Amino acid sequence: MKDEFAQYKKLLLSLRERLVGNVDSMQGEALKRSRQDASGDLSNVPIHMADVGTDNYERELMIELIQSGEESVRNIDSALEKIEEGNFGICEACNKKIGKERLKAVPYAKLCIDCQREEEVDKV
């Protein structure tokens, strides 16, 4: 079991490193102060309203991606804590083991596949 936990820990740390890098990169892009900075445009010519709308949409999308990435990092940190505590791979809803295939696909899963499906149905 310890070998299995070590494999998941390595996978989680690698995934965390990539996500943190992606989030940091996206934050840098999202925090550009003006369209002039973002585009490298050196002129101060007024821009078309459609361009402003597109820029706003792209910025909002970037913020949503950042938030999603930050949530994934928190979930990874939680999974790493569970490895240290020795209760990794246990469903938070039913306390049954989460299947290996699910953990391979989503190593920071908090719920077994059945409980996850049930939660998704409840949200709809």
TL;DR of this structure?
This protein is mainly alpha-helical. It is 71% helix and 0% strand. It folds into two domains: 87 residues; 34 residues, no CATH class.
How do the helices and strands line up, and which of them pair or pack?
Blueprint: H1 2-30, H2 35-39, H3 49-85, H4 100-105, H5 113-123
Helix pairs in contact: 1-3
Q: Summarize the biggest pleated sheet.
A: none
Give the radius of gyration.
20 Å
Q: Structural class, from helix and strand content?
A: mainly alpha
End-to-end Cα distance, whole Å, is 37 Å
Overall pLDDT: 82
Q: Count every beta strand, where a strand is a DSSP E run of 2 or more residues.
A: 0
Uncertain segments of ≥5 residues (pLDDT<50)?
none
Q: What are the secondary-structure elements, in order, as H or E? A: HHHHH
Portion in beta strands: under 5%
Number of helical elements: 5
Number of domains: 2
What is the approximate shape?
Answer: elongated
Helix-residue proportion: over 70%
Structure description:
With 124 residues, the protein is an all-alpha fold. It has two domains: 2-88; 91-124, no CATH class. The protein has helices at residues 2-30, 35-39, 49-85, 100-105, 113-123. Helix 1 runs antiparallel to helix 3. The two termini are 37 Å apart.
